[in-house]
Amino acid sequence: MKPSDFRIGWRLLLQERGYSAVTILGLALGFAACFLLMAYVHFSFSYDSHVPQAERVYVAKNRLNILEQGGWFDNTPINLLAVAEGSPLVEAAAVALPGAAALRQDGVLRTLDFVVMGPAMPKVLGLRALEGDLDAALQRPDAIALTENTARQLLGAARGVLGKTLTIENMQYKVAAVLADPPAATTLPYAALMGTGSQMLPEAMQKRLDKHKASNWGGIISRLYIRLAPGATPQALQREMQAASEHSPFAATLSPDMLQRLNGRPPSDIGLTSLRDWYFDHDLAGNSSTRHGDTKLVLGVAAVGALILLLAAINYVNLATVRVMRRRAEIAIRKVLGASHARVAAMLMAESLLASVLAAAVGLVLAWLLLPACAQLLNRPLATLIGPGAVFAALGVGLLTGLLAGLHPAWLALRVRPAQALAARGGQETYGTTWLRRAVTVFQMTCAMGLVAITLAVAWQTRFASNAHPGFDPHPLLVLELPSLMWEGQAPRQLSEALLRVPGVEGVTYSPSPAGRYYLGINNPVRTADGKSATLQQRAVSPAFFQVYGVTPLAGRAFDPQREQEQNDDAVVLNAAAVKALGFASPQAAVGQSVALEGRKGDLRPVVVGVVPDLRYQSLRETPAPVIYRNNRNASVLTVRYKGNMADLERATDALWRQYFPDAIPDMHRAASYFSDNYEDDARLAAMLGAGSAMALLLSAFGIYVLAAYNVQRRAREIVLRKLYGAQRGAVARLLGKEFAWMVGCAALVGLPLAALAIQRYLSEFAEQAPIGAWTLLAALVSVLAVSLGATIRHTLAALRISPALALRT
To answer: Global pTM?
Structure first.
């Protein structure tokens, strides 16, 4: 190709401005959608890529086989840190505990997100201080390291802040180091760093972080990061850690019945995941305290982005093909004047490349304008992804698209025969080309139909899950997450008693975690009188818990504030799943039975006073866990039942909170919000698929419109002859509509089964599924039929008005 080819292409684009605007804008929309979705894909696959030699860094995970519903967790026993530190396979190892605290600066309360980490973490993750001493910040109990952005927000500058004091949770901290902000694509975000010996951790937590304490093998509170020594393999280290876990003091305390139920399996499985793969670790998707991605979902988003660009490119090829047919005379003259096949092809390819690159540039601008809205929709900071590299990559995609899209029009131009073209004969496409055009239109319909069906299914399941009954009515409940446990100080109890005096409040209770939020809690073996045992999740609640939540027992009774005390070891309540796990024949059979469970002073033998339904403590992706409810104050979540306008309760609660916890930011939420939060990613997926479906329908409509226009032009003489022989308007309309009807049918035969398969795979992740049936598939079919009708009706009406004299003459 020569520069003159591009000049000719540019002049042709300017001459036919309507054609140019349609082709470039249509292709630009496809590029914009593709660029936005690919930005999300690139962001997802870039997690933790900033860590030096990340291929040597691994994160430990733990599967508790002793649980009735075992699963992998991202926390492990702290004792594994000692195992890793003592292994020659490990270069460095450290634990991390993310947290949040209230910080008072210049009289204003803020929330500070921090990570408590071991002193070797800088070596594990390659952390470096920009100013100060990071090692000192992680070793001194009153020291803290800030990121640049945090230092700028709190102290007004990112440099020269060493030695300045911050008040966090009423304790004084000195800034010992400033380090760079972590990237957005990190699985360990933080605004500040502290050491495991920090005064932020109470004495009880310090004991739980003792890596040499035998009893700590039974707890999992920290995340373990390991940098392997050069040449070491994760498999070898995993075997060492697994052996240490199987021979731990905790494993030696398991009862014979528990060992029998394990059936030869170890009490827990220890695994290692590469840091680069940690974000996409599917094992941790439901039981992790941090966000994890789904590889299949991200690849699906990439496929949708590529598909939209392909649909836009198909439309461009269709338009370019029609344009080549109209330029047959021009192409014939160029050949007669001596233009070689290469020159003709170069002219068409240059025009295609020019249009495609212009469309890519326009699409890039559209993507940049839409990026903030897209980032908000996907809840990902995508704005940082637009840079010189992204621009060059986008233009490269434009060049590649133009090159591929120009092949078919160039091939048609090479087949033009000058004699026929100049005699105005042979202006029709070949039989094979006509069927190729139909096939790509069917492909567009198939894609649109499949995307619409999947979008409707995801949206319907998300709506169903968000509104699923959790076992109680959450609407009159307000949840307060306190900064301390109920037994720590007087403020929690005083706040609870003050809330009971608020007009309209019908009850106040406490629990360890809000219903609807991930919670591992305390899991201990519980044994029945006949020796049957199961590991149940313990939930510490007040005697008024079930009355406040409005839960009616299935058998027996619930806790009664008139009969039970807050510290009560004589009575417990089971949920239905616990009844089944312990082997009772029915809820009624469990009532009155004594069970044995571990206590601080030996085994306790409380009596089961009642059985309650399974409350929905997690999302619909998990089946309800077996739970044993006990009365004690080892809880930090208040729930208030209110009759009236919840906004009034929120205002009154805010005032009381500031009275009893003046140094903590009010943390209150309506109970229903916790359940909807579980499906935020599903809602975003539905919105993203909805945008993709709308784009696919639009591009499909455009392709159908072009094909309909060409069909009317190609069959104009046939239509006229039929009319002359007495064909009615309805017969002519059916003639044109029949072709698109079978195309929609072919698209349905291909697209709907594939969509049904994709829907089933998505729904298989849920323990409870919405009664979707086939209505989403039918709705997708109807939507494509409606689009086809709307795209063809103009040309159908035009065919009915064709002048016989004009059609036969041309």
So the answer is: 0.81
